[in-house]
Design brief:
With about 375 residues, the protein is α+β, with helices and mostly antiparallel strands. The protein folds into three domains: about 5-75, no CATH class; about 115-215, CBS-domain, CATH 3.10.580; about 230-365, no CATH class. It contains 13 helices and ten strands. The chain has helices at about 5-15, 25-30, 40-50, 135-145, 165-175, 195-205, 225-255, 260-265, 285-290, 295, 305-320, 330-350, 355-365; strands spanning about 25, 55-60, 70-75, 85-90, 95, 150-155, 160-165, 190, 210-215, 220-225. Helix 6 (about 195-205) links the parallel strand 8 and strand 9. Helix 7 (about 225-255) packs across helix 12 and helix 9 packs antiparallel against helix 11 (about 305-320). The chain is flat. The protein starts with 5 loop residues before the first helix and ends with a helix.
């Protein structure tokens, strides 16, 4: 039986009585389950609970922005028709023949595509001007907000064009100052919210922006080159920090242990892998190696082993989460932990005297 939080049970009871539960955000739904990000285990847990409560989210909670609003509705069951080989004709009367049912086992795999609609910038609305507005008003809005462009719109679905610093300057050079926005606007560029972010990159690189249009035809946001830079920093920084941390921890261990000692840290269930150097150890195995007080003393570090190992285990847990490629940004606390520990082990490695292999061999022989 799946775990169903109180909030979902309340929503299911309202639906059963004919009421409509209040909409919630994806972030709020995650918090019902004590989660902050849509990792694969979290998604599976939520889907199991929704299925047991006979509820679906509209739109699907895994396909939209973290702070997007979703509705909780009763799940509708499709009518199942017998397949052709399950029908046997007798005297021109169709008779259903029972056939063994095969159950296919699936899972809850998070949407692997980084879609445009999952970006905050694609959902925070736009500041727009009308075609009959003065260019002076458009320039004031762009300067006040630090924008390079403004969409020219008559409604949240109707876009007439785009006004940019470039379009204003071009018009000024060719024809002199223009009074109204319509006189110096360019054709706009847009993209669907469900399109892959990677498909948007070439156009954003060329035009510096893209308006985002939802399925209901509303313009819900604008993505700029600056937004792309922020997004890719959020995606790449945890991997870069983890790579640095693992590298520095291996430097601390390098040339201080024999092959036999390194092999003792290997996962006992892994019988096929041979450990010849510290490079063959995983991060978890490196930490396991240092859990022994005897082996810890070989590092010659004047810091507390217990605290170091505790922090290293926390880093390992974050690493496992990151390697699941969760689509949502890492929490601020976890990212700060990675940054601090990366700086910490880097400082240790900088001032550490690493013994040579020859010295290690001599020590082992003694």
């Amino acid at each position: 039986m799946a775990f169903i939080p109180t909030e979902l049970r309340t929503a299911a009871a309202k639906i059963a009585s004919g009421e409509t539960p209040d909409p919630v955000t994806v972030r709020a739904l995650l918090r019902f389950f004590g989660a902050e990000r849509r990792g694969r285990y979290v998604v599976q847990m939520i889907r199991n609970a929704l299925k047991e409560a006979n509820i679906v989210t509209v739109p699907d909670f895994d396909y939209v922005w973290l702070d997007a609003t979703i509705e909780l509705r009763r799940a509708t069951k499709a009518v199942e028709l017998p397949s052709a080989d399950a029908i046997e004709l007798k005297d021109e009367v169709a008779v259903a023949v029972e056939t063994p049912q095969v159950t296919f086992v699936g899972g809850a795999i998070p949407d692997p595509t980084h879609r445009v609609g999952k970006l905050e910038a694609a959902n925070r609305g736009v500041v727009a001007v009308g075609p009959d507005d003065s260019v002076q008003r458009a320039i004031t809005l762009m300067m006040a907000n630090g924008y390079s462009q403004l969409p020219v719109m008559t409604s949240d679905r109707e876009v007439k064009g785009i006004i940019t610093w470039e379009s204003v300057a071009r018009q000024f050079v060719l024809s002199g100052p223009c009074k109204h926005v319509r006189d110096c606007m360019d054709k706009h560029r847009e993209i669907g919210a469900d399109v892959s972010l990677f498909e948007a990159i070439p156009e954003i690189a060329q035009y510096q922006y893209l308006l985002v249009r939802e399925k209901d035809k509303r313009i819900t946001g604008i993505i700029t080159a600056a937004d792309l830079s922020l997004q890719f920093r959020q995606l790449a920084e945890p991997f870069l920090l983890l790579g640095e941390i693992e590298h520095q921890i291996r430097r601390l261990i390098e040339n201080r242990f024999t092959e036999a000692e390194l092999a003792m840290a290997k996962d006992p269930g892994d019988t096929e892998r041979t450990i010849r150097s510290v490079a063959d150890l995983s991060l978890g195995e490196c930490v396991r190696l240092l859990e022994s007080d005897e082996r810890w003393r070989k590092l010659g570090l004047n810091i507390d082993r217990v605290e170091f190992v505790k922090e290293a285990h926390r880093i390992r847990a974050i690493r496992n989460d990151v390697m699941h490629f969760d689509p949502d940004p890492m929490t601020g606390d976890d990212l700060l932990t990675l940054r601090r520990f990366a700086t910490f082990v880097s400082e240790l490695s900088t001032f550490l005297i690493i013994p040579t292999t020859a010295k290690l061999a001599s020590t082992s022989a003694d």
